[in-house]
């Protein structure tokens, strides 16, 4: 097959591994910087142009869209969809998962475990917002944050009010969530492909750090999931309409809760800690589905009907 990896940087570990895995299985792999693509939007022959030439005859694409480039990146993915090219994750599913508020609302609708979460616009309602999640300590998140950036732990009521007011002065959208103290700075990354968890790892935050992101000094090791955790991860990815996803869970006193569903999960941490060839499994998924022309699935169609 001819497969395009939509990535801003060909040197990134995830991009390199996907290219290597595809070539090892005999596929023609090409890394395409989606920000340098431009599109001819027409009803007769829609095309994606790159470096002055049309990107033609591709069987599949693997979107690796950066969070800050979601709008343009998903437009490029959508153009490939218009051209009938199979995509590992569809544009609608990527957009859906990137909107943290909408993501939580969809997961809530499906009855999937979540931390108690509050969302409001007016700073006049700060006390009520804090009370919704059960008081302090609590976690305050920027909706547009990624890799642990824009996430603050407020340990007192006054600290929470100060942080919320500061974010509001910046006209930033925020979520306020209960702090899962019993997780002790540990979360679980589940890598889901085609409704199956293919690898899972425990991420432990650095000493004194409540965020477990590897980019912030956290450590990772393989993790055996409980049946409930495995089911929760699969249901969360399916609710988003994502066929390739990283689902982050916390172990709480009331069962596993989903913190995030990532449409472009990194491969380095999960592959190095678990020794699972995740990149190869993504290519296998494309082989099984692109060849059959499966452009859309029922989960994605169902999620599209959810309006928030």
From TrEMBL:
<dbReference type="InterPro" id="IPR023533">
    <property type="entry name" value="RimK"/>
</dbReference>
<feature type="binding site">
    <location>
        <position position="262"/>
    </location>
    <ligand>
        <name>Mg(2+) 2</name>
    </ligand>
</feature>
<dbReference type="InterPro" id="IPR013815">
    <property type="entry name" value="ATP_grasp_subdomain_1"/>
</dbReference>
<dbReference type="GO" id="GO:0018169">
    <property type="term" value="F:ribosomal S6-glutamic acid ligase activity"/>
</dbReference>
<comment type="similarity">
    <text>In the C-terminal section; belongs to the RimK family.</text>
</comment>
<feature type="binding site">
    <location>
        <position position="248"/>
    </location>
    <ligand>
        <name>Mn(2+) 1</name>
    </ligand>
</feature>
<dbReference type="GO" id="GO:0009432">
    <property type="term" value="P:SOS response"/>
</dbReference>
<dbReference type="InterPro" id="IPR011761">
    <property type="entry name" value="ATP-grasp"/>
</dbReference>
<feature type="domain" description="ATP-grasp">
    <location>
        <begin position="104"/>
        <end position="287"/>
    </location>
</feature>
<keyword id="KW-0479">Metal-binding</keyword>
<feature type="binding site">
    <location>
        <position position="260"/>
    </location>
    <ligand>
        <name>Mn(2+) 1</name>
    </ligand>
</feature>
<dbReference type="GO" id="GO:0006412">
    <property type="term" value="P:translation"/>
</dbReference>
<keyword id="KW-0436">Ligase</keyword>
<comment type="similarity">
    <text>Belongs to the RimK family.</text>
</comment>
<dbReference type="InterPro" id="IPR013651">
    <property type="entry name" value="ATP-grasp_RimK-type"/>
</dbReference>
<feature type="binding site">
    <location>
        <position position="260"/>
    </location>
    <ligand>
        <name>Mn(2+) 2</name>
    </ligand>
</feature>
<protein>
    <recommendedName>
        <fullName>Probable alpha-L-glutamate ligase</fullName>
        <ecNumber>6.3.2.-</ecNumber>
    </recommendedName>
</protein>
<dbReference type="GO" id="GO:0005524">
    <property type="term" value="F:ATP binding"/>
</dbReference>
<keyword id="KW-0648">Protein biosynthesis</keyword>
<feature type="binding site">
    <location>
        <position position="187"/>
    </location>
    <ligand>
        <name>ATP</name>
    </ligand>
</feature>
<feature type="binding site">
    <location>
        <position position="260"/>
    </location>
    <ligand>
        <name>Mg(2+) 1</name>
    </ligand>
</feature>
<dbReference type="GO" id="GO:0005737">
    <property type="term" value="C:cytoplasm"/>
</dbReference>
<feature type="binding site">
    <location>
        <position position="248"/>
    </location>
    <ligand>
        <name>Mg(2+) 1</name>
    </ligand>
</feature>
<dbReference type="Pfam" id="PF18030">
    <property type="entry name" value="Rimk_N"/>
</dbReference>
<feature type="binding site">
    <location>
        <position position="260"/>
    </location>
    <ligand>
        <name>Mg(2+) 2</name>
    </ligand>
</feature>
<dbReference type="Pfam" id="PF08443">
    <property type="entry name" value="RimK"/>
</dbReference>
<dbReference type="InterPro" id="IPR004666">
    <property type="entry name" value="Rp_bS6_RimK/Lys_biosynth_LsyX"/>
</dbReference>
<keyword id="KW-0547">Nucleotide-binding</keyword>
<feature type="binding site">
    <location>
        <position position="141"/>
    </location>
    <ligand>
        <name>ATP</name>
    </ligand>
</feature>
<keyword id="KW-0067">ATP-binding</keyword>
<keyword id="KW-0460">Magnesium</keyword>
<feature type="binding site">
    <location>
        <begin position="211"/>
        <end position="213"/>
    </location>
    <ligand>
        <name>ATP</name>
    </ligand>
</feature>
<feature type="binding site">
    <location>
        <begin position="178"/>
        <end position="179"/>
    </location>
    <ligand>
        <name>ATP</name>
    </ligand>
</feature>
<dbReference type="GO" id="GO:0046872">
    <property type="term" value="F:metal ion binding"/>
</dbReference>
<keyword id="KW-0464">Manganese</keyword>
<feature type="binding site">
    <location>
        <position position="262"/>
    </location>
    <ligand>
        <name>Mn(2+) 2</name>
    </ligand>
</feature>
<dbReference type="InterPro" id="IPR041107">
    <property type="entry name" value="Rimk_N"/>
</dbReference>
């Amino acid at each position: 097959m001819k497969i395009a990896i939509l990535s801003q940087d060909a040197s990134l570990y995830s991009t390199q591994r996907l290219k290597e895995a595809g070539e090892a299985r005999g596929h023609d792999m090409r890394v395409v910087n989606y920000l340098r693509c431009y599109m001819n939007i027409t009803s007769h022959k829609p095309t994606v142009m790159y470096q002055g030439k049309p990107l033609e005859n591709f069987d599949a694409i693997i979107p690796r869209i950066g969070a800050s480039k979601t709008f343009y990146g998903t437009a490029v993915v959508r153009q490939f969809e218009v051209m009938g090219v199979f995509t590992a994750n569809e544009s609608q599913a990527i957009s859906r998962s990137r909107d943290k508020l909408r993501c939580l609302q969809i997961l809530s609708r499906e009855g999937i475990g979540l931390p108690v979460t509050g969302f409001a616009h007016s700073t006049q309602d700060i006390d009520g917002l804090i009370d919704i999640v059960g008081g302090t300590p609590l976690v305050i998140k920027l909706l547009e944050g990624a890799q642990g950036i824009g996430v603050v732990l407020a340990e007192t009521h006054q600290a929470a009010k100060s942080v919320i007011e500061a974010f509001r002065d910046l006209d930033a959208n925020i979520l306020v969530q209960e702090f899962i103290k019993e997780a002790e700075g540990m979360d679980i990354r589940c890598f889901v492909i085609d409704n199956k968890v293919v690898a899972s790892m425990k991420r432990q935050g650095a000493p004194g750090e409540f965020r477990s992101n590897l980019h912030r000094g956290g450590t990772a090791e393989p993790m055996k999931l409980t049946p409930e955790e495995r089911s929760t991860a699969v249901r969360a990815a399916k609710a988003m309409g994502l066929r390739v996803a990283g689902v982050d869970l916390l172990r709480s006193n009331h069962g596993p809760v989903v913190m995030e569903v990532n449409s472009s999960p990194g491969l380095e941490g999960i592959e190095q800690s678990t020794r699972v060839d995740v990149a190869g499994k993504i290519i296998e998924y494309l082989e099984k589905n692109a060849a059959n022309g499966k452009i859309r699935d029922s989960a994605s169609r169902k999620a599209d009907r959810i309006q928030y």
